[in-house]
């Protein structure tokens, strides 16, 4: 067992405690007497108090912001403001020096852009400490939610030969010598000489393989990294991100929506209960950031108010057709305030349209169902009208789409026909078609972009700030 106690535990203890040892990093050192120490276990620092007369000048000089230290002494009630307890240290040991002349994270306010430029160190700051502790708890809550409900956690492949979305935005995986690529008699790349003997890529989704699991175990979920080679330099896109994708046999679209809403509310409620201090810090940060924006661009609700509003209110449910009519007839559209005018039924809704529905019209999360089949994937169940599919997207304020899902097409003939219409090879996806041929049944599923959920819960405006090591176009540091 470690020979020290984590600061989170120390702050919950009742003084006095005669002999405690803590280890962590110096946040500040004031008056050669008060050391604020943090070990990442919680938002709060522990104040360590020393008598400078008991320590030599060399040791005191080495207690700098960022230095790793060990402190041993008595835990006592604090007589100062801002903390209930403090450690009255009799022994200090410097475990790792930090040069104050070159250390980028000095005890002052740093912009998020500055911290992105020093991303290898930003987890040491209070803001990113809060973000990544919340990210951890969201991940834990996800596993807990599905485990409680009898779901099997299925590990779907990261390297695959299929393009689940049919979008073609793939990262290719190869062991071929790119300086001397082998060609076949038609002058094309000879993938028979590649590692897998055929073209391979990083997965864009575990859904298709997840469906195979659902048709064996009834309920499964995947939670893993996915990859999109989309050249988007926006605050909402990453090339590598994490997805949660449950698939459920014998679920129709309504069952699917019910589960998704219950799931989202559960994980947000979990963080509200587990991370009050981190959320308070992030709420204050966001409030200050919002105060610098023009009034019309500010969110109407503060962070904590917004989170409570989501968990305490039912999501609005409307069809694509109803959403289209609302948008088409909106003052925003008539005054040409949308970058993409809403004119033709069948258009793909943009983020600005989704946010208008959520933030201006309904003022709560919205689930849109029954999209035009031409803008949705081949595997979605077709409605009897021949124009729409049993799809559903969940829209959140500040983000737009956060969940996409559908009832899957379980009818072999209809699925095969749709694949042929979209020129998707039945031979390549024979295994997917087999799941319909042999004991197929109605089933549904959805995908939640994990980073977008972390964004929503933490109030961070840039998706690059909610993943430890962001992968974006022309950026692959670390």
UniProtKB/TrEMBL annotation:
<dbReference type="GO" id="GO:0003676">
    <property type="term" value="F:nucleic acid binding"/>
</dbReference>
<keyword id="KW-0436">Ligase</keyword>
<comment type="similarity">
    <text>Belongs to the class-II aminoacyl-tRNA synthetase family.</text>
</comment>
<dbReference type="Pfam" id="PF00152">
    <property type="entry name" value="tRNA-synt_2"/>
</dbReference>
<dbReference type="InterPro" id="IPR004522">
    <property type="entry name" value="Asn-tRNA-ligase"/>
</dbReference>
<dbReference type="Pfam" id="PF01336">
    <property type="entry name" value="tRNA_anti-codon"/>
</dbReference>
<keyword id="KW-0030">Aminoacyl-tRNA synthetase</keyword>
<feature type="domain" description="Aminoacyl-transfer RNA synthetases class-II family profile">
    <location>
        <begin position="132"/>
        <end position="468"/>
    </location>
</feature>
<dbReference type="InterPro" id="IPR004365">
    <property type="entry name" value="NA-bd_OB_tRNA"/>
</dbReference>
<dbReference type="InterPro" id="IPR012340">
    <property type="entry name" value="NA-bd_OB-fold"/>
</dbReference>
<protein>
    <recommendedName>
        <fullName>Asparagine--tRNA ligase</fullName>
        <ecNumber>6.1.1.22</ecNumber>
    </recommendedName>
</protein>
<dbReference type="InterPro" id="IPR006195">
    <property type="entry name" value="aa-tRNA-synth_II"/>
</dbReference>
<dbReference type="InterPro" id="IPR045864">
    <property type="entry name" value="aa-tRNA-synth_II/BPL/LPL"/>
</dbReference>
<comment type="subunit">
    <text>Homodimer.</text>
</comment>
<dbReference type="GO" id="GO:0005524">
    <property type="term" value="F:ATP binding"/>
</dbReference>
<dbReference type="GO" id="GO:0005737">
    <property type="term" value="C:cytoplasm"/>
</dbReference>
<keyword id="KW-0648">Protein biosynthesis</keyword>
<dbReference type="GO" id="GO:0006421">
    <property type="term" value="P:asparaginyl-tRNA aminoacylation"/>
</dbReference>
<keyword id="KW-0067">ATP-binding</keyword>
<dbReference type="InterPro" id="IPR002312">
    <property type="entry name" value="Asp/Asn-tRNA-synth_IIb"/>
</dbReference>
<keyword id="KW-0963">Cytoplasm</keyword>
<dbReference type="InterPro" id="IPR004364">
    <property type="entry name" value="Aa-tRNA-synt_II"/>
</dbReference>
<keyword id="KW-0547">Nucleotide-binding</keyword>
<dbReference type="GO" id="GO:0004816">
    <property type="term" value="F:asparagine-tRNA ligase activity"/>
</dbReference>
